[in-house]
């Protein structure tokens, strides 16, 4: 690699030199580069277009572009616009600095939630507190595992991953009315890895993928890592807007649509059977692949027929994991698809992970799921979460934050902030009060959710949460 | 995705119709497509060029191309040659059939080793039998873990992975004379995942990467998955041929060179300090990044200064794992590089794995490595392996198979087969006798190692092994 590279500097050292607005634009470009939304050599957004999307004046964008050009990060091409310099490296040293410096992008919430200590309040994070998890079953499973066969403790996994867990999943599918052979199941390291593997298989740089607006922020991160174009369609209280969904398919010919059918992240919407049928019909009409990220369905009080249940594996790919319900420390996810696609995915999994996920991990999951106390735990948990959703929704309402919808399950409340409060500003200010929030725009491919915030009810038992929130809002 | 795709058929159904040679060429093209060495729409090698590289007559290639064109897998463009059909899917249904059908490619050994049962003899596989591993330490660590903190059992990892294990690795580096801050270490799911992550960061489709011939077959698999061009340089008993190494750098401007500095897979060569210094000097002269895959160094009787020790992290990236020495079931690897690159890799690891590797996995590794009995185990193991290398080498010599070199450690013997014996044919025949072998050409980017075989001495305690080998050779 050519080592005469341009390093993207920390925000701090230019903060003073430029106006807030200019600096916001500069950092936005840096983030696009570091997150690979912009590749070296790629053309930057037009000045007018970027100005309106950032909601600043064109002159501000001009100033920002000129400054970045002066730093050698981008360069101007006569009459054709600005481009990322070919030897600009896609990483930003600003990340070494205090995270406060970091532009709020899809990685913002992940890294804040994953790396900040337990002293922080985390209404923004994507999982439950450890003491809400089935630790009893896990400890029991670990003791059992300590007596397991040498092979289980030392050998690599088979390319598909442990057959006992695949058979168990196949039985669960059968209970849903989905006929799946264990060989149609591929175990992976996580739902994230499942989607990443599918992207490797289905996508090529420049392809288009359909997502919802809002959607799980890490979908955007994965798709950016695969250098594909994201097309988004508004998400309503009954699911994706079907008219615009079909429109987008016709116009952009995306390779697939990825979403959650039950307890959509962040909105909490669960598709009605009719809605699922409608999406499937449109997808069939235009031969579109549907990827159903199913990580939250176990939180539903009752099973509702989802895309896979209605469509089978002809065009629907189901992926899931055990991170939300069982443990995020035991990394394990899966992909369910047609046999020949599993076969194709195997080589990719061998190349990139050398076989299936940790046998120790899959055995722990298998043992827990066969443990009666785990099923009891889930029943109790659903009730506990229902209560928490009601209480947190009421507490938030008292400080002017309204739930957009009351989900049928899970731990998310997608909520509208008081008039005039920007969720990114609120999140940045809250971080200084040791509180991690999940601002709406990190979920929004169109950056149009600035008035929304995603709250995790299981992380909001401490009354302090609401005091800090209202203080911070008051002092914005 | 357009579903009117061409499926690549199993070899079986055309085997009869065509001559061995033609079928070999046809399957080679299929493999290139399924392994993504050839993308849909991409131009096939010229008839003359492919003929000489496959060592067949041009007319054989013509016949093969015509046949593939008839099947719609490729098409001819007047005066410009043959191209992969745009809707040919890069997977091969032949993989559903008996594995015997499968062309011997870099995935062949992986999948045979990972998926065949314990009834098989596996001189070809890349790990030791479970009863050679430190199972005592593992069981102890699991019992300890069953009493661990709830957070450890349930939470996601931090983006870099557990700090206690990173500190321990940093101390090991210090003992090697390498100054590394724990923040320069990124824990991953495996050495394979480490290299994959680095490829995502450093490579773009069409880039070139330098490897040795022979080299670890999965390097080729990963690089193919990233659609880059592999440039290979012959490997000698003292390491890579330095003259050709520098020549290749000048001619092809590769992004990096990846190899094992100690106990090179498959040859078992360990670089002398002089050789390491020479490679580093050439790399510095031409500003080349070196990736040092260090998974085998713990098997060395004494530590020898390797690339990272000599060059630091300026241009050397160290990666490793615990799969060979501790457990392949506990998935954990690492990357050591400069701080700003770790920062850049973090976002990629968040996007594709949602944070660092399983805290349960990293805690197991950490506990074992701090367990005195593990260190004792490693000392005993080194002696046991030394004995096994001598014995197996002698046993193989008796049936005319000569070790190319006696490695200073580890479990591989790179061996020359008797005159006229083709290792791929031998491997295919041995598989019918329930024996998995690692034929030379899966390690050879130039397919020029057909007279070599890689043996794993820890898997060859059963005298049957040698009987079967000599029988199969006799009946080829």
TrEMBL record, chains A, B:
Keyword set includes Lipid metabolism: no
- What are the record keywords, sorted? DNA-binding, Pyridoxal phosphate, Transcription, Transcription regulation
**Matches recorded under InterPro entries:** Aminotransferase_I/II_large, HTH_trans_reg/aminotransferase, PyrdxlP-dep_Trfase, PyrdxlP-dep_Trfase_major, PyrdxlP-dep_Trfase_small, Tscrpt_reg_HTH_GntR, WH-like_DNA-bd_sf, WH_DNA-bd_sf
Pfam (any one): Aminotran_1_2
* Limits of the HTH gntR-type domain: 19-87
The UniProt family comment states: In the C-terminal section; belongs to the class-I pyridoxal-phosphate-dependent aminotransferase family.
Matches recorded under PANTHER family: HTH-TYPE TRANSCRIPTIONAL REGULATORY PROTEIN GABR, TRANSCRIPTIONAL REGULATORY PROTEIN
Q: What is this protein called?
A: Transcriptional regulator
Species assigned in the record: Pseudovibrio japonicus
